[in-house]
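Amino Acid Chain and Its Fold in Token Form
===========================================
What this section holds: a protein sequence and its matching fold, both as plain text.
Structure line: whole-number tokens from a learned vocabulary of local backbone shapes, matched to residues.
Purpose: to set a sequence beside its fold so the mapping can be learned.
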Amino acid sequence: MNIKGLSLNTIPPISIPLRFFLTAPLFGLLAALMIIYYGSDIWASRWNSINLALTHLLTLGFMLMVMIGALYQFIPVMIGQFIPWSKKSAAIIHPLLVTGTLSLTIAFTGAFTGAASDFALFFYSLAFISLLFALSLFAMSLTPLLISKLNDHLIVFLLRILFIVLLLTIGPGLYMLLAYSYPGLGINFRAYTDVHALWGLIGWTVLLIMAVSSQVIPMFYVTAEFSRRYLKLLSMLILMTLLIVSTLKTPYFSSIFSSFRDSSLNNIVYIILSLELIFFSWYTLRLIGQRKRKLADATINFFRLALISLVTSVILWWFFAAGFNNQYGPSAIQFEFTLSLLLIYGLAISAIIGLLQKIVPFLIYLHLQNLSFAHPGSITLVPNMKMVISTKKSNMQFILHLSSLVLLIISVYFPSIVSIAGLAMLVNFGWLWSSLLKGVLIYKSNKVKILAYPEIKLNF
């Protein structure tokens, strides 16, 4: 493991990231239970409210929950400065994010089951208020660091890009949620659905994985450093390309550029975006293949799966755009769900589970090691990373995750196995939660034993 360049003096309390990490798989379990309960209704339509509930359980409940926790841990160690008010802000953001996600799920589910409109409106409003405050507070907590004069570090540049993308993702999302909460306003929210999905799945997800991979892969897998020039240029190109695409999709500008909808202009923009995504995947897979530490590591398979899913989704999209849908009309809905599963479950969740398999054991090891320095003789109580989450557990996690991904995609075309796919997904997230919980219990148990040793005052 290569920890060169990390600032180990600015490690936040372990309770900050762990509260987010332990909560996230529970939303994955809830999503799996919904698939088992509702069955083939999940894949009936893209606009199906139960499908929207499932999507946001995975994107807000799992993906965003983990990434907020990871950034609270990641940023101080990488740039050597604490996030201002991190303890207080994390303690507020976490319950608000939980409340907002659950409220949105209840509202969507209520709308699907035909619950009274007042019931749905209450939970839409609660979700809007909770998520607005949670995401606004998170954005404000990062702002002082991102606008200050920091060292010219690659991660600082990428985080500033990510901050812009985060605002462009949550903006349309909250705007649409406002329309759900207050239907009397007459907001045409469906026009912004594709823009919201575009920034969330391609912008936020890809750029966040790019930022995290640029630090995590060289550190844990001892690969060459990512090229600063490539990633800076690539992140800017992706941002600009997405701005052009979203501009063409917004109602006002789409009417202006309506004559270009089927022209070469659209094709050129989408070709550029596709090449950018494929280049990032190829470049990262190439670095992984050239790693110095050639020992088998199950967790690296998650990153491979994530990048392969991204490339596959680009290829499938072009089949869809090239007229495959016109030839096989009934498969249009299935194609949309396949792309969503590849981007959400294949790309984002694969990379996040791989990240958790590494970062949680590392955090537990690091915090216990620092604690043992002040309690001489207790160093033997510091577990190595493999003792927290073993290779065997990580291998099983990958098998469960890959199986559930394949079954979910197959279930889109053969709805009779939806319940089996949901069960596989339930086992996948259950295994992840139990692995993380065991790590936390190891930390708490060993911490108590370390504190039992006599303490010495360290004066640096």
Q: What stands out?
A: The radius of gyration is 22 Å. Residues 16-150 form one domain. The chain has a mean pLDDT of 83. Residues 35 and 444 are 35 Å apart (CA to CA).
